[in-house]
Records
---
Amino acid sequence: MKSFFVTTPIYYVNGEPHLGTIYTTIAADIIARYKRFNNKKVFFLTGTDEHGEKVEQSAQKKGVSVKKYVDEMSSAFKEAFKKMNISYDRFIRTTDEDHIKTATAFYKQVFKKGDIYKGEYEGWYCVSCETFWTEKELLNNTCPDCGKKVKILKEETLFFKQSKYQKKLIEYINKHPDFIQPKIRRNEIISFLKKPLKDLSISRTSFTWGIPVPGEKKHVIYVWFDALINYLTASGYPKKGYTNIWPPDIQFMGKEITRFHCITWPIMLMSAGLELPRKVFGHGWWTLNAKKMSKSIGNVICPDKLCDKYNVPVDCVRYVLFKQMPFGSDGDFNESIFVEKVNNELGSELGNLVSRSLALFQRYNNSVVPKGEVDKKLQESYKKVLESYHKFMEDLDYYNALNSAFDFVRAANKYIADEEPWKLTRKEDNDKLMSVLFNLAQSLNIISALIYPFMPETSGKIDEQLSVKKDYNKGFKNVKPGAKTVKRDILFPKIEKIVEEKPAQELEHASFEDFKKLDIRTGTIIEVSELTDKLYRIKVKADKERTVVSGIRKYYSKKELLNKKVVILINLEPKKIMGVLSEGMILAAEKNNRVVLLSPDKDIYDDARVL
Ligand code: MSP
C-alpha cells in the first residue's frame, strides 16, 4: 500500500533553526500524526539543504571546512526538531550518498530527454536566496524576496528547457484545482504563467561545493535543482518499489518558494516522465514587527528559548503557532499574545478541565472511573465536533480544527459548571455524581485524541493520568469503569508576567573598569535538586554557600554536577525564581543548542577570583 507522503522544504544550513523554519516542520508533523493516528501508513520527510554558494561562503567566513560546517549545522536542526517532538521518518541531507546518486541519475535522465543545453548565463543573482532574477523583478536594485544586494553573474551554464513544458503545466494546473493551495498561491502561479517562461540555469561554474554534473567537469548542479530532487531520493527512486511512497500527497513550504515548487519542480518531473505531487501548500510568513522573521535579517525567535523563558512545555509553541492566525496567512509574532493564549486557552480552558476532573475522581471515587449514564447533550456535542474536526484536518485548516477541539473542551467545562458535582453529596444523588465522573473521563479521553496531532506531549500526559490509550472513535465507551486515574501536576502553569529581557550590552565598548565590576569566583557544586522540568536548584560553595537556580537541567545529570568545579558570578542582584532566591549565576557557554559549563582547567581553591 502506498504511504501518505508528506514533505517540508529542506532547510539551508547557514543559520540556526527558528520559529519560521520550525513552523513548516510542525505543520507537516501535525498532518503526519493525524494520519498515523487514523491508521494510515505515513512517510514524513524533512531535512537540510547543504550545497551551494551561500553555504560555501558561510563556512569560509567561519574559517572551517564546508563539510564540518554542514555536519554541525545539520545536527542543530535535528536537535531542534527533536525538542519540538517532530516525528519525521527520514531526515535527508543533500550530502547523503543516496541523494547524490539520485540527483546524478535524474540529471542524466533529463539530459537524455534532450531538455538540457549549454549556454551562458548573464544576469542578476541573489546568493542569500540562491535565486536568479531579471532586471525587472528587482526591487530598488535588491532581491525582491529578502531585500539583500544582488550581484551580476556571467558564467558558462547548462540550461533546462522549462519553456518547453509551460503549456502542459498550465493545462495540468487547470485540470487539478487542488494541486496548488491555498487559492491565493494558485492565483499567483497562474498569473505568473501568463508570461513566457525562461529556461532555467541549472549549473554553476564559479565555485565547487555541489554535486558534479555528469560529463561536465567544471559544473556543479544548481542548488535548487539538486534540492528539489531530495523528495525523489527519499522515495527510493530510481529503485523499484519507489511508488510505495511516490508521489507526495502534501508538500508544505513558505510562500516565497512556491514558484520553485509549482513551476520548476513539476516541470522537472514532467521532463523525467514522473508523477506530480498531489498537493502543494504555500503557507504565509511569521513576521516580527512586520518584517519576515529570517536568519539573514537576524530578527528570529528560537522556540526553545521562548519555552525556557516562560518555563512552559513545547506544546505551547506548537499550539499558538496554529492558533494565532489561519494556516496560510501571514502573522506578526507577539509574545503577549503567546502568553495570553497559554494562560487563557491552554491554562484556563484545557489545563483547568483536566485538573478539575482528576480532582473530582480523586475526591468522590477514590481516583477510580465509575460506571455511569452517557450524557446525551455532551455526546451530541462530541459527534458534531468530531465531524467538523475531521473535515478541517483534511482541508489543512488547522486553525478551525483546533477551534473544534476546543469547542468540546468548552462543552465539558460547561458540563461541570451546569452539573455542579460538588453539590451532589446526598446519598440519593450518588448515581448522578458517578455519571458526571464517567462522562468527564470519556470527554478527557476524546480531547486527548483531538489535540494529539498538535500537542502530543500534553495528550500523552492526559492518557497517563487516565491510564487509557486515547481514541475518539469509540465515543463514550473507551474509558472502562474501574480504570484507576492518577492526578499529576497541572499541565500549563500560569505565566505570571512578561519578563522583558534587556538588550545585550555592546561588549566592544566595555572597559576594563566595567569588567572589574563583575565579581566572578571559582566554586564547587555541593548539592543539586530538581526545581522544574528545566531548572535545577544548585548549592555552590564559593565565597559562601550560595543557592543558584540554573536552567541546565536538560544538559547535565545531577551526578555530573555534584562536586564539579564551576565559575560563578556572585554579585548579581539576587532574584526569586520559582519561589527560590537565586544568588548568582553559574557561567556556561552556548552555541547551536549546546550548553557546557565553564570550569577551571586545573585544581584551584574555591573562591578564587576570576581575573
Ligand atoms: N533550501 C530552500 C528550500 C529547498 S526545498 C527543495 C529554502 N530554505 S530556507 O531555510 O530558507 O527556508 C525554508 C522554509 O522555511 C521556507 O519555505 C518556509 O517554509 C520556512 N520559513 C523560513 N522563514 C519563515 C518565516 N519567517 N515564516 C514562516 N515560514 C518561514 O528556502
---
Amino acid sequence: MSNSAPEGKSSLPVGKLFILSGPSGSGKSTVIAQALADPSLPVRLAISATTRPPRPKEIDGQHYHFWTPEQFENGIRAGQFLEWADVYGHRYGTLKSEVEPFLQKGQSVLLEVDVQGGMQISKVHPEAVLVFIQTSSLEEYEKRLRSRRTDNEASMQKRLASARQELQTGAKHYQHHIVNDDLNQAVAKLKEIMHSHIGA
Ligand code: ADP
Ligand code: 5GP
C-alpha cells in the first residue's frame, strides 16, 4: 500500500499509525512512557477521552481528556471519535483530532486502546500496525494491578475477567506480540517495532 498523500494535496509522506493493546496490568502505559522518552523515536501518543475518573497523579489533557458522560455523549453525536468503546464500566474513545491531523503532517501516532478499539480502527486504517502486549502468566495481571493500587476491588475484578478474551483477540488479530516480563526488554522490543515500520 502507498504511504504517500494523494497527488496535489501534499508531498509529505503520511505518518505511521501504531495501535497498542493488552490486558489491564500488562504494562502498556509503563512501556509506552519509557519507549516514547527516546527522542530518536518520532512518535506521538494520542490522548484519549474517557469518563473514568482521574487516578491520583493523572492530569487532564496529559494522561486522558477526562470528560463527563454528557461531554462524551456530545462528542459521539458531533462525530468527534474515530472509535469509542465501553471498557471496564467506563467509556473511552479516540478523538479524530488526536490522530488525523498528525498523520497528514507526516507524524507517526501511537494509540493505546482496548482490543475492541483496535479492531474498529483497523477497519478505518487497515495499514495500522497492531501491537499486543501481555505477560507470560495470568496471575501476573492480578499481582501488578494490586501493586499499582489504583483500582478498587470491583474495577480490578472487571479488568481481570476480561483478560482471557483480550488475549484470544490479540493472538488472532494482532501482528506483533510483546511479552512484558522484563520491562527493559519490552521497551526495547516496542522501540524496535516502531523503528522498523517508520524506517527511522
Ligand atoms: P497497563 O497500562 O497495561 O494497565 P501499567 O503500565 O499501569 O499497565 O502497569 C501495571 C503495573 O505493573 C504498574 O504498577 C507497573 O509499574 C508494573 N509493571 C509494568 N511492567 C512491569 C514489569 N515488566 N515487571 C513488573 N512490574 C511491571
Ligand atoms: P485505564 O482505565 O487502565 O487507563 O484503561 C482501561 C482500558 O481502556 C485499557 O485497555 C486502555 O487501552 C483502554 N483505552 C484507553 N483509551 C482508549 C480509547 O480511546 N479507546 C478504546 N477503545 N479503549 C481505550
